[in-house]
Structures are given as C-alpha cells and as structure tokens.
Amino acid sequence: MRRLVGTLLGLLVLAIAVVAPALLPDGAGGEASEPTTIEGYRATYDVGADGVLRVTEDLSVRFPDADRHGIFRFFDRALDGDPARRVGLRDVRVTLDGGRTPVEVSDDGHGRRTLVRIGDPDRYLDAGVHRFVLSYVVPDALVPGADLPDGAGPARTGFVWDVVAGGFAQRIEAAEITVRLPAAPAGRVGCAVGAGASDGCTATTDGTTVRVRTAELAPRTPVTLAVGLDVPTPDAARLPWSAPFDRVLGTRPWLVPVLLLLAALAFVVGRLQARRNDEVAPGFGLAYAPPAGLGPAQAAMVLREEVGAEQLLASLMHAAEHGVVDLRRDEAGWTATNLAAPEGWADLDEVTRGLQALFPGEGTTWRIERDDVASGQRLKAGLTAFESDVERWSEEQGLLVDSRLSILGGLAVLAAALLAGANIVLNPFSLTLLSAVPGAFAVGGAPLILVRGATTRRTPAGRQVWSQVGGFERILATDSAEARFDFAARRDLWTAYLPWAVAFGCADAWARKYRVAVGSEPPAPSYATGWYGGWAASSLSSTLASDFSSAVSSAVGAYEATQSSSSGGGFGGGGGGGGGGGSW
Prior knowledge:
Layout: H1 2-23, E1 37-47, E2 53-63, E3 70-76, E4 78-79, E5 82-86, E6 90-96, E7 103-108, E8 113-119, E9 128-138, E10 143-144, E11 157-164, E12 167-168, E13 171-172, E14 175-180, E15 190-193, E16 203-206, E17 209-214, E18 223-229, H2 246-249, H3 255-276, H4 296-304, H5 309-321, E19 325-330, E20 333-338, H6 350-353, E21 365-369, H7 373-396, E22 400-402, H8 404-426, H9 436-444, H10 447-450, E23 456-458, H11 460-477, H12 493-504, H13 507-518, H14 541-566, E24 579-583
Parallel strand pairs: 1-13, 1-14, 12-24
Antiparallel strand pairs: 1-2, 2-9, 3-8, 3-24, 4-5, 6-9, 7-8, 10-11, 11-18, 14-17, 15-18, 16-17, 19-20, 20-21, 22-23
C-alpha cells in the first residue's frame, strides 16, 4: 500500500511539474522605461482573400543618446479572440535609414512569440531620428465572423487585428494606418484605442480601403481594428488547446498521444525493473527466540535491509537489559551511561558492543538533547557509524551483497529524473510533455533509489537467517493462540524481547500479547524504572520508540541547520497582431 501511495504521489508531482509552465507568466513585456520615442508610425496592411496578410511598417524613431544598437519587434502567435488559432511570421525584411542592417529572427517565450532584433550588435546608432522599415507576411489572418466583436458584424469572415501593437514600449506621437481588404466592409468598422476598449478612434472607409489616424499614444497602448467581410473564411490550422499550453504540449497535436504512450511504456519498464529487485520472502516458521548471536539491529537489517534511530534505541535497550547501560529519559531528551568496562560487553553481539564508541569508558555518558547543536553533531556522527557497522557486519557475514543490476537501475532512474527536471526548467524544445517519458520511468523505478536496501540482495545464507528472524518477528507481532508465550513461567520474556519488538516496529503487538496472556499491563523494564510510566499501557510504538526518534531528529536537525546556514513588449489587444517592441 505504501508503495502504491508513493507511486500515485510521484505521478501527481510529475503531472504538476509538466503542466506548471502553462500556468506561469511568460515574462513578456514589462514596465521598464524606454528612452526612445516613435515620432511617426505608418503601416500598410494588405489582406488577401486567402487570409494571407502582407504588412509594411515604417517607423521614425528618435534616439536621444548614442547608446542603442537599434530596435526590436515581437509578434504574438496567439489570437486573443480565438485561443485555438496560431499565426506565424515569414519573409521578414528590414531596412535602416534606407540601407541594409543585421536582422535576427528567433523564437521567444518558448515559441509563443517571434522576436525580430534589428541593428548591428557591434555598433551604436547615432543620436537623432532613424527610420526603420519592416515588411513581413502573416498567413491565416482572417477569422470566422462569429469571432467579431459586437457591433462589427454580422459577417461570414472577420479581420480583427492590432494595427498598432499593444507591446510598444515607446510613446508614439502619431500613427497612420492603411488597410486594404479583399472586399468592402460588411457593416460598421470597429476601431478601439487601449486594451479591452471598444472605441477611441475613427476609421474612414473608401471602397475596400480603411484608414486610421491617431493622435499621441502612450506606451503599450494598442489600436485594434475589427472589420466584417462578406467572403468565405479560409481554412486555418487550429490546436485543441490555448496558447499557454504550447510550451507544455507543443504545436503538433499528433505528438501528444505518442509521448503519453511512450511515458506509459517507460513507467512499466521502470516498475518492472523495480519489481525485479524485490525478493520473494521465504517461509516464516514460528520461532520463539531470536537467532543465536544476533542482536536486534542485526536482525532488523536482515529482515528489512535498513536500520535507523529505532534500531539504535533497540540496541541501547538490549545493552541496558544486560546491565551494561543505564538508559534514562526526561522532557529534554535521553541519556545513556556506560556501566561496564569493555569486558562487561563481551557477551553481547558485535553491533551492540560497537556502541561503546559512543561513550567509551565506564561511567561516561552520551546525551541526546532536543534542539541542541552539540548533541546533534555527536548524534549524527554516532548514528552514521552505527548504520555503517550494521551494514559492514551483514556484508562480512555474507548475508547481503550489492546487486549490480539494481545499482545500474538506480543510476538510470536518477539520470531519468535529472533529465526530466532539466527539460522542465530549461524547456529547450518548448515541450515540457517530453519530460513525461523519463519522468514516468523515474517514478516507476523510484524504489531503486528511495527504498533503503534496494541495491542489495540476500545471499542463500542471508535468506536462511531472514527466515529465522521473520519467524521470530511473526511470534512477537501475531495475536494468534498458536503463537503464545508462557509468560507465567518466564515473566522476564516481556522485557528480554522488548528491544527486538522495538527494532521490528511491533512493540504495540508485543504489549498486547502480554496483556492477553497474563491479564495485566506489561511491567516496566528494570532499566526504565522511574521514567517508563504507563507507556506500555498505551502505545509503545507511538511513544517510546517515536519519542526517541523525535529527539534524534530534533537534535540532528538543529546541527544540520547550522551547517546549511554557513554554507520589449506586452500583449496585443483584441485580435491578431499582438506584440510590440522597444530599443536595445
């Protein structure tokens, strides 16, 4: 169940990460000041019956200082009135003061705009007025008549365009627009100044020609023209999603199901790789005692292939049960005191004997105090050494070995996760859905890097010990009548095996077994008199073991906290032609 929940959460996080770029601002435009001024803006729009739009823009731009290379223009590919449509740009030609000049045309905003940068990057323009003439072609400029704003129809077809783009960062002193249509306007010609406006300018009509003149326009003020035409609407490519999702899904609809299918296959491959690493459990026959010579941490390592704070507590309790450690708890944390010389530890298992390194010498103490930096530093080192001792023991005894196939699989999962993340952040192909393929593989194979012990396998000897330890855990954890202990004959069994129950995470069940068999609450261990209280009567797993783990996390977290602290434009107005410009 935990793995299923983890997988579902992983897929949800992946889906959110892939879709997130569509929900973020695209970074176009801005409110940066622009030193240049457009003293005159003249544009001619020739609209063909096939929907092809040919445009010539003539800009007289005043540069107050000789600190700019030229100007830039960007063109939105989305139509505000028709989210499914995209418009392109081709055949861009530019002159500067009647002569040729370098021009760079590129994608911007992950394909949402076309950016045209005009000017020589190796030199600055002289201060004064410079004339820029741009010509370009836009296919599919006509829209269905239903997309016309109120008052500009009805008509079969419409031309809705920002004849002065709303993203110009400069102030425009005067604008003169000429639009040549394939047919005379059908109904009133709408002309609006400002984003979302419905009026503000007047268009004059002469047959199939429409002219618009404006007074001074503030920066980022669009002029939108809406004309109905009694001509057939040309066919135009449409996408089943709005423009913000282009950076997620791209502009090729057929590619979306292909990538989703590949992602599903990648998830299956990752899941199968992870499942290949799962070991089939042997039979767990009933065992009324732990395997000889093993301590609770060693047994937990063979059983779960991982150890941590709870197994460290179990080892301290095991040592305390044998009288070599005094273990005490208070509100601030835990204190362990070494009560014996090294020879006093001789009868304990190898890993438990290794705890002497935490408090060497008889009478020395080891303090675990919540939110204490010094305690956390010692604890982090001690816990790391403890885990290393257990892992080294399992390898030296030939119980666990590294699985090369699992290690390679884990590296592949990590590489896939990094690749998916890099594509989402950088989005070099303007297609974050591409990350779903390596991302799905990473989610499916995540147990190879997230599950402790995923890169190891038990040897035949390890499986034999696993069977014995699993049988003992079954005895401690099960409530069945066949797995009863004779507590009346050996009342010390409860405290003797309590460290093992803590290490296995089944202390509650072990307490319940005692209650059922004896009819009273389990007694406090001899080393816990005075602080054990009524924990056995409530919930051992959520009190004793979790309290120790909480103290460990708090102290280590306090220490780690000290370590980490030391270390041009805008959108267009009502229809097509959105974009703008500025100087650079």
